[in-house]
Design a protein that fits this description.
By secondary structure, this protein is of the alpha/beta class. The protein has 20 helices and 16 strands. Strands 4-10-9-8-7-5-6 form a 7-stranded mixed sheet, with helices on both faces.
């Protein structure tokens, strides 16, 4: 299989396409080792070109970011942090990590940045333990007149360990839009903390600041955690800072979903958590449009505890991913990124409005960010049925719980829709209206089937075939107009792979 050789032969007398050449050269190397892996890479490109990506936590990073992830930097161990490594030969990694750190600080206006976490979940663990070490472990060590954990007696160590493992954390309930890593019992965070939760209002679907104040004063948590994966309204972080201070809590914000909106200036003033929070965590993909990974931003007083994630939480960081983060952060400081961030919010708002016009139930009636949450229970559907029906028509999104959901986290009663990826492709208001129209048509023409007991199924459904055919055609028209990575000629690879 001579993919690169054939491509070069086909370009004789033509200007080389640098992006296509790079993609082809990389694929050629993969195919020589394992053609099936190469096939899946091409098939993923074809699939993503053929289906509308409406998953709120997904996006398309630049080809430059992708290229930075595939190189020999992956072979280097670099435990520690710049200038303080457990391995020799880390000079280049030091430079790259420092570059990413400085870009992140400049981008967000943060006092300190830690760019090593492999994911948002890792970033949260780093932040949790940094808080526990600074607020609990350090004072107890000082009381014992000790600076080295290894010098503690077994009884002293047990006392510190037990106190660190019994601190209170207050975060948003998963069913109100919170995240698994915010104290959900099936997640390690619930075993690290004595976890409590706040909910949105049953009447408005929004945060109730007075109810939250009352709950904070009753619980008095060490960590007051603000963050969400399915909440569509802006948060007043100045007010959250005030509430945290009233009870002496550490204010931690998980902005994984909306980091790109903060970076791009679409969330400013009190909607920007950086000036108000003690520690902010995020992923580097999603709206930020970088490589899959995580990051911690914090006030200077937490810097040394965050930086010492190794050996406490992490082993070796991923230098190739940190290189890609540096590129993504630089991209996010461009004027084009600011336009993109603004357009994400406008697209989400227009999508929500168009769905409301078509009598689709939208939580809170609209959105302030990149997400729209649909409650499909009024259509007698579960989220699982709605997700699968839309996927049949070329629309990729995910089912999601809605507040006080009676269907649980597997079947759910909702859908979560995001506009980052469609915005990256260049779609605007007209396309959002078209997407809403297709979506409403599919949902209104999907009906649950009955079980053997005569009850409505939570999983199985029937989609009108005519509506399905029309929807597939309309989605294809959109995808043909807005092509993902147009620099890459996927048709060229058809003779090598059946995709």
């Amino acid at each position: 299989m001579e993919i690169l050789k054939d491509y070069l032969a086909s370009t004789q007398g033509k200007a080389l396409n640098a992006e296509m050449l790079t993609f082809t050269a990389n694929l050629d190397q993969v195919a020589k080792k394992n053609p099936e892996v190469a096939k899946r890479i091409v098939k993923e490109l074809v699939d993503q070109r053929s289906n509308l990506k409406l998953i709120a936590s997904e996006n398309f990073c630049s080809l430059g970011v992708q290229s930075a992830m595939g190189n020999l930097l992956t072979d280097k161990y670099a435990e520690g942090f710049p200038g303080n490594r457990f391995y020799a030969g880390c000079e280049n990694v030091d430079d790259l990590e420092s570059m990413a750190i400085n870009e992140a600080k400049e981008l967000f206006g943060a006092e300190h940045a830690f760019v090593q976490p492999h994911s948002g979940a890792d970033a949260n663990l780093v932040a949790f333990w940094a808080i526990l070490r600074k607020k609990i472990q350090l004072p107890m060590m000082e009381k014992l007149n000790q600076t080295n954990l290894l010098n503690l007696s077994k009884a002293e160590w047990d006392e510190i360990r037990q106190k660190m493992g019994n601190q209170k954390m207050l975060g948003m309930d998963l069913f109100s839009g919170g995240h698994l890593t915010h104290g959900y019992r099936h997640n390690a965070s619930a075993q690290m903390f004595d976890s409590y939760f706040y909910n949105v209002s049953k009447e408005t679907g929004r945060l109730d600041y007075e109810a939250l104040r009352k709950q904070l004063h009753e619980i008095k948590p060490l960590v007051f955690l603000i963050g969400f994966s399915a909440y569509t309204r802006n948060v007043d972080f100045a007010e959250m800072r005030k509430l945290a201070d009233e009870v002496g809590a550490v204010l931690m914000v998980d902005m994984a979903h909306f980091a790109g909106l903060v970076a791009g200036g679409a969330m400013t003033g009190n909607a920007n958590p950086i000036p108000f929070a003690d520690i902010v965590t995020t992923t580097t993909h999603k709206t930020l449009r970088g490589p899959r990974g995580g990051m911690v931003l914090c006030k200077q007083e937490y810097a040394e505890y965050v930086d010492k994630a190794c050996p406490h939480i992490m082993g070796g960081p991923l230098p190739h991913i940190m290189a890609a983060k540096a590129i993504a952060f630089e991209e996010a400081r461009s004027p084009e990124f600011k336009t993109y961030a603004k357009n994400i919010v406008e697209n989400a708002s227009n999508l929500a409005a168009a769905l409301v016009e078509r009598d689709i139930n939208i939580l809170t009636g609209g959105t302030d960010n990149h997400m729209v949450i649909i409650n499909v229970s009024g259509l007698n559907l579960t989220g699982r049925q709605a997700e699968n029906a839309l996927r049949e028509c070329g629309m990729t999104l995910n089912r999601n719980t809605v507040p006080f959901d009676t269907n649980g986290p597997w079947y759910t009663s909702g859908l979560r829709i995001g506009t980052p990826a469609t915005t990256t492709l260049g779609m605007g208001k007209a396309e959002m209206v078209e997407i809403a129209d297709i979506m409403a048509s599919v949902l209104k023409n999907t009906t649950p089937t009955k079980t053997k007991k005569g009850e409505l199924s939570k999983a199985n459904y029937k989609l009108d075939e005519g509506v399905k055919a029309d929807s597939i055609k309309r989605v294809k028209a959109l995808m043909d107009k807005f092509v993902l990575y147009p620099e890459i000629d996927a048709d060229f690879f058809a003779k090598y792979f059946t995709v």
